[in-house]
Write a structure and sequence with these properties.
Length: 404
């Protein structure tokens, strides 16, 4: 019996080792695994997640040692003569590829040279010959505006930026439940609460399963496959339609009490630190039905987008987005924040812009970067010229801060 058990144990160990090696090779082929980093993100105690420092996806993604999506390192002390801009926000700012590969696999991964920050850095360098620019991608997928506020204080301001761009919108702007609280309702806190909360059997299982998920290529690949299979087999239940009139009335109040407060506080802190805060309202596919140049694949993506949400969601968004843009514009002006609504910038585009509900193709990123570049160019010029900012009656800064 003991020989049988020993042989079975050895056989199982060999199979696991072979499975681990095979899974590693599979992940290299389909996921760009570099042999070191299975996870693109690591846990951060203040904002739940941070892009994994020194992470590499061999298909084109590179994080530097600070966790910024950038192929080169960023000196904590800004080099003399450098105009430094940070791009913050969630997955659109980060440059996430398309999340609906069952409809299109062409843009699963965008290269570091195809993201908004890369195009914007090139635009500004061309616009101001001889001036050195750094546009640093500090985007973190799945984050909300309170994470921007935390990250700004925790990390970004330590790098002495001249300007910070906040590209947000979809993730936390359009909740209309009157009881919504962005700190309590952020979905990714659930995972950490299960592990760090009461010591239950579930927490024991979750902690060990997550450890294996992060360490084992075999378990990682099997878990992802099981998750994808579950999505394919899931059938949506009967869903109640949104009462658009009620939702539009409520969304402004919820927005003012949650996301807008975080944006106002970020603007005030940035101005206090002599940094120009610029807030960008991200474009969304669900608003693009009437774009003449909408490509066939975008029409498929749009149809899937509409079907994936509650009935009447498209009408709700078409009415809510312009209203919240007005609210942001006036509220941020009062605290010294610059605001640009990007939701209509693709009206003349004749090529594919969206890869899913909010993520962009390289062409979409370049158009967005050019529009943002044109918007901030006067502010950059003013700051480079050394003009001092004025003060508004509300106590905010009325113009770009002076260079340092």
């Amino acid at each position: 019996m003991w020989k049988k058990l020993l042989f079975s144990g050895i056989l199982l160990a060999v199979l696991l080792v072979l499975g681990e090696l095979a899974a590693g090779q599979l992940l290299k082929r389909i996921q760009g695994y570099d042999g070191k980093h299975l996870m693109q993100y690591v846990y951060d105690p203040y904002k739940n997640m941070l892009p994994t420092p020194n992470y590499t996806d061999v298909r084109g993604i590179r994080h530097n040692a600070a966790g910024f999506r950038r192929s080169s390192e960023v000196d904590r002390v800004k080099p003399a003569g450098t105009f430094r801009i940070f791009l913050m926000g969630a997955s659109t700012a980060y440059g996430t590829g398309g999340l609906w590969p069952h409809l299109q696999r062409d843009y699963e991964v965008l290269d570091n040279t195809e993201t908004i920050d890369a195009y914007l850095e090139a635009y500004l360098s061309k616009s101001f010959p001889g001036q050195r620019f750094e546009v640093i991608n500090a985007g973190i997928p799945s984050t909300w505006t309170h994470h921007d506020l935390i990250y700004l204080n925790q990390t970004v301001l330590r790098y002495d930026p001249d300007m910070v761009l906040f590209l947000d919108g979809f993730n936390d702007f359009y909740f209309f439940d009157p009881g919504h609280d962005q700190f309590l309702d952020y979905s990714y806190t659930d995972h950490s609460y299960v592990i760090m909360g009461p010591p239950t059997v579930r927490s024991l299982f979750s902690a060990n399963a997550y450890w294996i998920f992060r360490k084992s290529a075999l378990f990682h690949a099997l878990s992802r496959s099981a998750r994808n299979l579950k999505r394919i087999l899931s059938r949506p239940s009967e869903r109640p339609a949104i009462d658009v009139d009620v939702a539009v009335r409520q969304v402004e109040e919820v927005f003012r009490r949650n996301a807008l407060k975080m944006m106002e506080r970020s603007a005030l802190i940035a101005r206090h630190e002599d940094v120009v805060p610029v807030f960008l309202l991200q474009p969304l596919l669900i608003l693009e039905r009437d774009r003449p140049g909408l490509t066939p694949i975008e029409k498929q993506l749009h149809a899937f987008n509409v079907e994936s949400y509650l009935p009447n969601y498209e009408e709700f968004m078409r009415r809510a987005v312009p209203r919240l843009a007005e609210v942001q514009d006036s509220a941020l002006a009062a605290v010294g924040g610059e605001f640009l609504d990007l939701t209509g910038i693709y009206k003349h585009a004749q090529t594919q812009i969206f890869t899913d509900y909010a993520h962009l193709t390289p062409e979409g990123n370049q158009i967005l970067a050019d529009v943002v570049g044109g918007f901030i160019r006067p502010m950059v010029s003013t700051r480079l010229a050394g003009d001092s900012p004025g003060r508004t009656e509300a106590g905010g800064v009325s113009g770009p801060a002076a260079p340092r």
